Amino acid sequence: MPETADQPPIAPDHAGDHAPAHTPQDHAEVYSFLGPSGTFTEAALAQVPQAKGKHWRSVNNVGEALGDVVAGRSVAAMIAIENSIEGGVSVAQDALATIPDLRIVGEYLVPVNFVLVARPGTRLSDVKVINAHPVAYAQCHLWLDANLPAHGHLPSSSNVAAAASLLDGSPADAAIAPPGIIDHHDLEVLAENIGDNPNAVTRFVLVSRGTAIPAPTGADKTSIIAELPDDRPGSLLDLLEQFSTRGVNLSLIESRPIGDSLGRYRFVIDADGHISDERVADALLGLRRFSPAVIFLGSYPRADGRHVDYDHRYRDEVFTEAREWLKGLTAPPGE
Does the keyword field hold Amino-acid biosynthesis (predicted)? Predict the structure, then answer.
């Protein structure tokens, strides 16, 4: 997965870990990411100013990354949460719903493109089995169906791992990988730009256990997970009205099964705005009264920096004035 211009060079440290070559010996601050070196997740981590010069720990999956945070092995973990083609990353959403006390403290966008690589001397006509991460494989199916209609798919934990395995006895003939893979491994590119959508972007979030919420910037997002109280007509509408009646726009809403019985769902929600915004805070209060379980995942700056636009009928002063008005109605005479 691709290197970026501002990404520090990565050098092996101890087993399973990677760190910037200029990292000091003191590894007090560790950041976990889906490895090995060269993944899109590493490219997202390279965008985090506070991670520069720190120790970067390469892990195999989302569970291991968040496990590092929970166990205190890492101060934060970078995980993929949403793709512009495939939608939400369900394994990440479910992990955030079930592992307590995690907070999203930032989001980062990484453009996604792919190449098909193979061992030196391999021709495209020789390819029968392709190793790739399932999400990347799904984003290249149009090209694969057109050029390799009879191929088989061997799933991998990451596309960099898929490419590296070609040199380590993999039964696959080729692998889907990021364009910079040949800088890391002795492989040949059989085809470039094989992704179905040249504008594909993956959204990553930095997750920690800290309770400090980043200060509002005016271009913020608030992420929560909420359950419906019961399975009845209009229940989802009741949930959505907690936001619409306060003028809060939702940029993401996805359902995930709770798993205890059929028909029981939780909803992963991204709301435009910061928890310190009166309209957002009031919506969360309404949601908390309505839902049997609400998980606050965090308020943090939007990766695109786009200022949140909203109807000024829902500006902070409207909410504070309404509270003062209500307080005045119940105040004793003369106060």
Answer: yes
